[in-house]
Amino acid sequence: MRIAAIADIHGNHAALKAVLDDIAALGLRDVVNLGDCLSGPLEAGQTADLLLLLDPEATATVRGNHDRYLLETPAATMGSWESDAHSQLAPRHLHWLSKLEPTLVYRNEIFLCHATPATDEVYWLERVSPEGHVHLRPQDEIEAFAEGISQPLIL
Ligand SMILES: [Fe+2]
């Protein structure tokens, strides 16, 4: 199986369009999207419209933490990444976001999540110190996050 994997679009409509054109030119049909689709200062509404056009039979999208913030954060307390995007979104876009799952298994072979299976806010491969320094996690911690996942590929 050949698939395209995309992630962290963050409302970058022009980049998404270019990448989808590239995917089509490569003859790929299956697209998995690892989340954080819309938040940011770019074109959230246009990006959502493009994502809604993807073939639901050949596309799987998991919910990222920023996708979740768009749904859960009251408008008055949203950070700029969410408020800029939220102001561009129509009810149909928010409905689409609300249907996204935090994890999925694609075609019985690929486990999909944003961040880790248990939380969308913890880096799988790195730890961040209180000072903001990023360090590779020990191998046993990385492997522990995958416990119980039987698929041969994790994205
Ligand atoms: Fe994220």
Task: Give an overview of the whole structure.
The chain has helices at 13-25, 44-52, 65-72, 80-86, 91-98, 139-145, and strands at 3-6, 30-33, 59-61, 103-106, 110-113, 126-128, 134-136, 153-154. Helix 1 runs parallel beside helix 2 (44-52). The relative contact order is 0.15. It starts with a strand and ends with a strand. It has a single domain (3-154), classed as Purple Acid Phosphatase, chain A, domain 2 (4-Layer Sandwich), CATH 3.60.21.10. The longest helix is centred in the first third of the chain and has 13 residues, at 13-25. The strands form 3 sheets. A 3-stranded parallel β-sheet has the order 1-2-3, with no helix packed on it. The mean pLDDT is 97. The chain is built from 6 helices and 8 strands. It has 155 residues and is of the alpha/beta class. The protein binds fe (ii) ion (FE2). Fe (ii) ion binds at residues 36, 64-66, 114.
Question: Features of this protein?
Answer:
globular; 6 helices; 155 residues; three-stranded mixed β-sheet; single chain; binds fe (ii) ion; alpha/beta; Purple Acid Phosphatase, chain A, domain 2; three-stranded parallel β-sheet; 34% helix
